[in-house]
Amino acid sequence: MDIKAMLEGVYNCPCKREHTCDIRYVEIGNGVLERLPEIVSDFHSIVLVADENTYPLCGDRVSNLLGEKIAAKMIFGKEIVVPNEKSIAAIEAKMPSDTDLVLGIGSGVINDLCKHVSFTHNIRYVIVATAPSMDGYASVGAALTLNDMKVTLNARVPYAIVAESKIVGTAPADMIRSGYGDIVGKYSCLNDWKLAHLLLDEYFCDEVYNTVMAVVKQTENTADALLARDPDAIGMLMEGLVIVGIMMSYVGNSRPASGSEHHLSHFFEITGLLDNRPYYLHGIDVLYSAAVTAALREKLSALKPPFETFKLDRAAWEADIQRIYTEAADGVIELQDKVGLYGKLDNAQFAAKWDEICAILKEAPSKEKMEGYVASIGLDMNEFHKFYGEDTIHNAIRYAKDLKDRYSVLWICFALGVC
């Protein structure tokens, strides 16, 4: 797939929308870090952002390449960096008044922080990728944890993505697993997108859908090569992650890349932070969660209409939200009151369209197939269940949907009593 052609956009798409992406450079390969001086030639006061793990990979090299253009550095310490208010303020405190570019060295959290800070200060940012671990490099959204809530705020794409093969190829194995999981988990979110299009008439683009699905197909059988750190496989994974981000830019949100499997992943992260419990890397959680949603799709497909009328027990729901989300609960309740997805759960509509719903559900891989992908990348579903425990997983299946304003299979499962 031709990334450079994708950056030029699509202006005659059958979905009737123009698709654009404002990324100027995507450089993936050997020696591409040397292009940084050319890439940032129009900028003069750069704040470099990294952490204690990512700076040693190429921080000095970047500093030497850019010299006096580096006006300040924000290097986070040994603590786990959370993309929250504290981290945002730490970067802003380092920024001279004439800062015209934020340059991040890192992956998920560093990328999101740089994306958000640069957007709020109306300047551009460049990301030097250090791991093929997630698909947010090229997306428009910044995934943050604000007021103890996992939120994705609109921002803008980076000015440039630079991924040196020798750097991303040395990423920890779990970060490679995370990138693989973030891609293969798209089977779940793409299925959710079709369901939302059918049931809520949500916007849908075949061009974007097919492009993301092609990335999934080219990635799903590369697990052995990725674990062996085959350079071609690592490069293809990195390119795939960037392409998915470009597709998010095409539609202006994360719908082509994030659905029920991401909502479960966000649940484990948010409740982990709230309760001081550990959680997996994002993409690893996404892959495990995609296997969970595959099982839910099979359970749904086995149901036969007619269905009992759905009615929300508001008091019981609020009590569960307060119990699970504690200090973040009011924000969750406020979001769902604003979005109103509970009011759109119509079991009579499900019954009327059940054949179409089941046809879509069956397009996604089976539970057995998804668990095979989990095993292929060196992960174990039994460990997932032991790590989180059945109560937490059950709560995630029922209430992860409430963290977001996006329709997915989790809403149908809730309405029909599958979870």
Residues in β-strands, percent: 5-15%
Oligomer: single chain
Structural class: alpha/beta
CATH class of the largest domain: Alpha Beta
Count the beta strands. 8
Largest sheet: 6 strands, parallel
Describe this structure in words.
The protein has helices at 3-7, 36-39, 55-66, 85-94, 108-120, 165-168, 173-184, 186-200, 206-219, 223-227, 231-251, 260-275, 282-301, 314-325, 329-339, 347-352, 354-361, 367-376, 381-388, 390-399, 409-415, and strands spanning 25-29, 46-51, 70-76, 101-106, 124-129, 141-146, 149-154, 160-164. It has 419 residues and is of the alpha/beta class. It folds into two domains: 3-171, Rossmann fold, CATH 3.40.50.1970; 260-415, no CATH class. The strands form two sheets. A six-stranded parallel β-sheet has the order 1-8-5-4-2-3, with helices on both faces. β4, α5 (108-120) and β5 form a beta-alpha-beta unit. The mean pLDDT is 96.
Summarize the structure.
The chain is of the alpha/beta class.
Secondary-structure topology with pairs:
Elements: H1 3-7, E1 25-29, H2 36-39, E2 46-51, H3 55-66, E3 70-76, H4 85-94, E4 101-106, H5 108-120, E5 124-129, E6 141-146, E7 149-154, E8 160-164, H6 165-168, H7 173-184, H8 186-200, H9 206-219, H10 223-227, H11 231-251, H12 260-275, H13 282-301, H14 314-325, H15 329-339, H16 347-352, H17 354-361, H18 367-376, H19 381-388, H20 390-399, H21 409-415
Parallel strand pairs: 1-8, 2-3, 2-4, 4-5, 5-8
Antiparallel strand pairs: 6-7
Spell out the key features of this protein.
419 residues; alpha/beta; 2 domains; six-stranded parallel β-sheet; 21 helices; 8 strands
